[in-house]
Amino acid sequence: MIKNNVETIVEGNKVIYKRYFDVPTELLFEVWSMPEHLSEWWGPDGFTLTTKSMDFTNGGIWEFIMHGPDGHDYKNKIQFTDIKEPHYIYYKHLGDGEGDQDVHFESKIIFEGAGEGTNLTMEQIFPSKEELERVNEKYGAIEGAKQHIGNLSKYLEKLK
């Protein structure tokens, strides 16, 4: 496991990101599950977040807007499919919920205790390898996810 950077593995239609965090599993889970934390770190570099609504339960919906550094707003809708505190969060990204945004994938966020810290695995599964390539080319998805995890790391440093 790479301790300071994000290990990234691309396998067909999925991308797996791994990183060790020097914080307890419960804290890492908490910052993935509460809007007041998510607004401090969610998204790639330069993005900010506004949560419209969040039902953090199995089957619950999280609607939010990512505000890009270019001034563009990106509506997003996520449905939580399986949550087991503090072990994992599985969800489906449903685009913008209005049919305009064409990005659909599933994510598995896995938190595994490792000594005093936590190993995080974030897996994104796209409908096909071609869809992953299209989304990456159009939106810079892989680099954006690495920045997303980097911003999480910066936020956790502030909480220590």
Secondary-structure blueprint:
Elements: E1 7-11, E2 14-21, H1 25-33, H2 35-41, E3 48-54, E4 61-67, E5 73-84, E6 88-94, E7 104-114, E8 117-125, H3 129-139, H4 141-159
Antiparallel strand pairs: 1-2, 2-8, 3-4, 4-5, 5-6, 6-7, 7-8
Helix pairs in contact: 1-2, 3-4
| CATH homology group | START domain
Sheet with most strands: 8 strands, antiparallel
SSE pattern, N- to C-terminal: EEHHEEEEEEHH
Rg over CA atoms, rounded to whole Å, is: 15 Å
CATH fold title: Alpha-D-Glucose-1,6-Bisphosphate, Chain A, domain 4
What is the CATH top level name? Alpha Beta
Bin the strand percentage.
Answer: 35-45%
Number of domains: 1
Structural class, please?
Answer: alpha+beta
Q: How many beta strands in the DSSP annotation?
A: 8
Helix content: 25-40%
Number of helices: 4
CATH architecture: 2-Layer Sandwich
Average pLDDT confidence is: 93
Spans where pLDDT lies below 50 across 5 or more residues:
none
Strand order of the largest sheet: 1-2-8-7-6-5-4-3
- Based on CA inertia axes, which overall geometry fits? globular
Head-to-tail CA distance between termini: 22 Å
Protein name: Activator of Hsp90 ATPase homologue 1/2-like C-terminal domain-containing protein
Domain Activator of Hsp90 ATPase homologue 1/2-like C-terminal: 22-157
Family: Belongs to the AHA1 family.
